[in-house]
Design goal:
about 350 residues; alpha/beta; Rossmann fold; Helicase, Ruva Protein, domain 3; 3 domains; five-stranded parallel beta sheet; three-stranded antiparallel beta sheet; elongated; disordered C terminus; Sigma_54_int_dom_ATP-bd_2; Sigma_54_int_dom_ATP-bd_1; Signal-transduction and transcriptional-control protein; AAA_lid_NorR
Length: about 350
């Protein structure tokens, strides 16, 4: 039995066709959601005598949407470079976390690779065939977070699109929902998120139907959430719900022995992408890179490598290609090791 839907009433009483509108079908105790398209049937006098309704299982539609919207994970643990004790310990804990369905909290500075870890966990988990949906909680306006996560029904608010919209929880059902920068989520939405995590159910904004969701949660933050709890900016009960398995990602300055390996990887990858051949890298370049404190971490290193490739002279990367913020003695905790080369450049 199709639950009451205004578009079907309009089709039968006003003769209006409708397209790709969500409807709920109830069969006994089971409820399923479909995308429905309907067209009225009229007799030779133009009178409405009935209608034809087409139903498409929404789970199939979600799979197509996820496939074409990039809602999948591409990174694996093999893609995480480095042999330093800090990074290998993070990989070990994350690999174990992938085997369970418990919530994971990834903490680390911006640019340390939190989404790479989240995708790797998903790809090693039993949910690897399901969607991987990422949401940056810090990039969504406060008044739109609820509709983004939980979706909304048609007419829920001014500007709501016709037919409503599926939220990220529904799109991620059967897979993993990655909530990046969870520490930036407003307190009022933290309450709603906690309720979903406890009940495994959502209700769209403007709707009354309860929708069951099967989602594994991975969160990430560059804030110290314990400190945010103490300041009253983050709910303690939500923190404990999310922090079942904690993985701390080290900043690049604490794993300087990994920089040559990561540099070589970005050098090969980026030179191939840009079509620029690099024949030689001055060994002093690596020394400078290892002495720099990398506030932007791996993301900053990747950008620096791309810059140096673009500025390479006849396929050679030397000291003149090093950005000033890395080359200047004041930019490093080891200025005494840089003075000679700095004078040489000057």
């Amino acid at each position: 039995m199709i639950d009451k839907a205004p578009v079907i009433d309009q089709m039968l009483h006003q003769g209006e066709s409708y397209f790709d509108t969500e409807v709920t079908v109830t069969a006994g105790a089971r409820t399923e959601r479909f995308l429905s398209t309907g067209k009225p049937i009229k007799d030779e006098l133009g009178e409405i005598t009935g209608g034809v309704i087409f139903l498409k299982p929404i789970n199939r539609i979600k799979k197509l949407v996820n496939r074409f919207s990039g809602a999948h994970a591409t990174f694996h643990f093999e893609d995480i470079l480095g042999n330093s004790p800090h990074i290998r310990e993070a990989v070990r804990i994350a690999s174990r976390a992938a085997e369970s369905d418990s919530s994971v909290l990834l903490s680390g500075e911006s640019g340390t690779g939190k989404e790479v870890f989240a995708q790797a966990i998903h790809n090693k988990s039993p949910r690897y065939e399901g969607p991987f949906v990422a949401v940056n909680c810090g990039a969504i306006p406060r008044d739109l977070i609820a509709s983004e996560l939980f979706g909304y029904e048609e007419g829920a608010f001014t500007g709501a699109q016709r037919g409503g919209r599926t939220g990220k929880f529904e799109l991620a059902s059967g897979g993993t929902l990655f909530l990046d920068e969870i520490g930036d989520m407003p307190l009022e939405q933290q309450v709603a998120l906690l309720r979903v995590l406890q009940n495994k159910q959502i209700t769209r904004i403007g709707g009354s139907k309860v929708i069951v969701v099967d989602v594994r949660i991975i969160c990430a933050s560059n804030h110290n959430l314990q400190s945010e709890v103490a300041r009253g900016n983050f709910r303690q009960d939500l923190y404990y719900r999310l922090n079942v398995i904690s993985v701390k990602l080290p900043p690049l300055r604490e794993r300087q022995e990994d920089i040559p390996l990561i540099f070589d990887h970005f050098l090969r990858e980026t030179s191939h992408k840009l079509g620029i051949k690099v024949n030689f890298v001055d060994p002093a370049v690596i020394t400078y890179l290892q002495q720099y404190h990398w506030p932007g971490n791996i993301r900053e290193l990747q950008n620096v490598v791309e810059r140096m490739i673009n500025l390479a002279t006849e396929g050679v990367i030397g000291l003149e290609q090093i950005p000033k913020e890395i080359f200047l003695p004041s930019a490093s905790p080891y200025p005494e090791k840089k003075t000679a080369a700095y004078i040489r450049q000057r």
